[in-house]
Structures are given as C-alpha cells and as structure tokens.
Amino acid sequence: MESLWEQTWEQPNFPAQDKNINTDILIIGGGMAGILCAYQLHCTGVPYVLAEAETICSGITKNTTAKITSQHGLIYNKLISRFGIERAKQYLAANEAALQKYWDLCQDIDCDFEEKAAYTYSLSDRREIEKELNALEKLSFPAEFVHKLPLPFPIVGAVRFPNQAQFHPLKFVSGIAKNLHIYEHTQVRELIGTTAVTNHGRIRAKKIIVTTHFPFLNKHGSYFLKLYQHRSYVKRRYISNIIFCSNAQKPFILLVFRAVLYYHSHQWLFFAQSNKTRHRHINPPAPSTITILTSFLSTILLKMTFPAVFLYFIVKSTFPSLLKFLSS
Q: What is the pTM of this model?
C-alpha cells in the first residue's frame, strides 16, 4: 500500500554503483537521516558516497508523520528528573536548532512547509500536563496551558508549543537530494574494516555512517533474533489544520493528529500508536510454559556463539514433543 506521501511526489532516480569507489565518508542508508548527512557533507565539500539498497526514502521516511517539533509527548519533566535542568536544556536547544535548520532549508523547497503550534493533551490526567508546564517554565520555554481543543472529545488539558512545523517529507527530500552522490540499488553485504562490499563492487572509505534504522549486518550481536516489527495505523479525514499528540497512559492509545495538504484540500491524518505485529490492542494473555521456556532458552543462547544458537533451533525443530511435554 502506498503512503500518502508517495502518492503526491515525483520520485528522483539515482544510478547503481558501477565501479569500485574510494571516498572519505560512506553513508549506508538513504532515508531522511542519510540524505541529511549527505547534504551537509556536500555543502561543506567533504568527499562522500551514499549507498542505498533499494530506492531513497523507501523505508521509515515514506511513512513518517512528518511533524517537525521539539515536543515529543510529556518528556521534559522526565528529562529534568533523570538528567537535571542543564541536560534537559541541551536537549530542547538541540531540537529547536534542528527545527530552525529545517525552516531555513525549506524556504527554497516546495515541500508544503507550514508553521503550526503543537499540542500534547491528556484525556484524564491534568496533573501530568501541569508538571510538564512547570518543567518547561524551568527551561524558559514559552509553552502554554490549553483547556480546550477542536477535537470531537473532551480533554482535561494540553501543553501548547508555539512555532513548530510540518511538511511533506518526500517533496523535501526531492529538493535537497539533487546533485548528491547517491547510489541506489547498491546493497552493502559486508564490512571489512571501513571497506564496504556491495552487490556491485567495493566502496573504500575513511569513515562510515550507518543510517539504516535497523542493523543491516547479522555477523555480530545476533540482532536478527532480537528485532521485531512494529506497525502503526493511519486514518484520513477532512477537518481543520493543527498538530496534536495525546498522552494517554494506557497501552496502545497514543494518538497523533496532524493536517496535510492532499490534492489542494486540508485533511486530518490520525496516527495510532505503533505496536508489535500480531499484538492486539487488548491485554495480552498470560504466557504459556512453552513460551516462557523458549524465551528463557533464547536469552541464554544469545550470550553464546552462533553455532550454539543454530544448534538450539535444530533441537527445537527436531524434538517438538519434548517441549510439549515440558509445557504440560
């Protein structure tokens, strides 16, 4: 299924690697993070190459909410409690600087960039909203308490962040990716020091930046056993234009609302909280004995060598009756 962003952009095309390459910096992964790294290096004149296994922005970036905001739920009270005021200030300042950088970049790019206020609201816990506002006051940020929002349900309060933004992420990428040294359909299959072995040759670099979201090599760490898929859900409706984020405390109830210009009309996008695939939005049943046993064995074996993990799966597939007996 195409995302809304994919339906409303002209995708640029880049060649595949056609020879061995020597460069200063190799960027692996052509999502938003990789493209921005390439753009910054390009502007400063540092030799670089970006290698993307498929096409740019074909993973996480094409499905993002595309909000540009320093407000990430009710986070600042937690940051102050855990790290102190100075570090919380650094986090806020870094996010505001990034917001300003996006603002500067988008002035010359047709990417539906719009300045918007952002809101985090609560359905039942006004105290959490007030604690966040007190934290932001300590950080000298001009947040505001809001009693009511144009939503079809009541709230007990919201934190308003002024001067935030939203945009069309793929139109933005189309604008900044022009003239960048990008190779699509160039999959990095192995790293030997700072040399990447791809499906088209080798790329020798002095430094490597990995922007692939998930680790792309399974040689070390057994990441393929530790990773799991997350999936979120989007609904589109015609309505007014603003950004909201809920702070419901129950699992799976985090919602993000934002407006988007879709074929010349503003519509709402409703983004539901992501969850692991095959998990329903209800309280999960108690795990069975076989689930606990398998989880325990996996945890133990993850600390051992790969042959031991391989042996475990052979045993598991060969003797299922033993596991059923243990679970009875």
A: 0.74
Superfamily designation of domain 4-63+171-221: FAD/NAD(P)-binding domain (3.50.50.60)
pLDDT in the model for residue 152: 82
Distance from CA of residue 28 to its chain's centroid?
A: 16
C-alpha dihedral sign at 73, 78, 80, 82: negative
pLDDT of residue 41: 97
At 239, the pLDDT band (50, 70, 90 cuts) reads very low
Q: Give the span between the Cα atoms of 219 and 221, in whole angstroms.
A: 7
Gap between the Cα atoms of 256 and 96, Å rounded: 20
Q: What are the sequence ranges of the domains in the chain?
A: 4-63+171-221, 70-101+111-166+229-276, 289-327
Sheet containing 201-210, strands listed edge to edge, beginning at the edge strand earlier in sequence: 182-183, 48-51, 21-28, 201-210, 195-198, 188-192
